[in-house]
Structure formats: structure tokens, C-alpha cells
């Protein structure tokens, strides 16, 4: 059953028979936040997802958070035989709004990308692309041209990393004063990077060396020195 403009409504329980709707006029007017985060999310995976990958995988983002593995399997099963389906989840087991579908044949994956990308599924315009291989096995060398400060930028943090995962990483660092994980103002979901302030440059330098070689949930962290945050008091007005 195809979704038409008339029945694009918020849903509770998702019927398994609903597929996609290519409504171009609506798609042009939608602001898709997943377009901004797509590049980062594509390489984000859990251990089970890496082990399950044996065929041709696609990455599906901006999904409704109510969707399950079964919904995803039913929706994409029409394109070909599916080997595995996995939805990205946080430490509480809640959906991150993206998932992976692995087909047994390349033609099926290609067809899914061509037909389902930018289509509507359960009231949301989804993004579908071929899964990009992560370079998690390669070690990223620290930048030699960065001037050490007592503040670090930490990027490429996996979206499915839980608070416990992050706490475990930062708890191992000495001299840390403050950690700020960036979140989206509208959704409240992590944006994949953080800033950490240290009591001195020496502590920040040691953390830089450690984090630059650290792998979190299959992703190599990107680390650089940042400008120290300065808090200034506004002059009182008469």
C-alpha cells in the first residue's frame, strides 16, 4: 500500500504493510536534519552490526523512532532478499532514528537506494544510501601544527554511544575539569562531538595523545586543541 499525501499523519503502532511515497512537492518543503548528520552516522555501528554485515548494506536515516527491526524488514523486503536488519540504539535501548539493511545481492541494495531515498515512510522523509566503510582500523595521527591549550575538541563520537560509554572514556583522563557534549536543541540528541576543559595544558596534552589513538564503538575519535573558553562578566548598566 502506497502512502498518499492525505494519509501522512502521526502514527502510534506502525502497520507493516506501509511502504514509501515519492511526493516530490512535499519533499521539497521539508527540512531534513538527517542530511546534516548523515556523513557521521553512516560509519556508526555496534559490534553486532559489524559481525552481521556479509552482503550489501544500505544506511537508512531520519526514521520514525517508533520503527522496529520488523518494520524495516517489511518495508525493504520488496527490493530483494534481506540478510540482516539492525536499528541503531542508545544505551537505554531507544532508537536513534537510523538503521542498516543488508541484502544478499548488490542489485537489491542499488534498487532500494534509488527508489526509497527521499521518500516518505510513516510521515518522515527518509534518507537512504549505500553504507560507507569505516576506517576504524586506521590510527589517526595527532596534528603537529596544533598549539596545545588546556581545552580539547573531541569529534566523531558515535551516536549510539551511551552516557556510560562516554563516562568510561573521560573518567580515565587526569586533570579534567569540565566536559560538554553537544546536543541538538530541537531533538535533544547528541551531535557527535564534545569539548573538554582541563586544569592545565600538561593534562590536556596527555589526554590529546590518549584520545587520538582511542576507538569508541568502532569509530576513531578525532581530537584537536581548542580555544580555552573564557567567561566574562558583562558590565553593569546604570
From TrEMBL:
Domain called RRM: residue spans: 56-133, 150-228
Stretches for region Disordered: 131-151
Keywords: RNA-binding
Domain of life: Eukaryota
GO molecular-function terms, A-Z: RNA binding
Stored Pfam families: RRM_1
Name the record gives this protein: RRM domain-containing protein
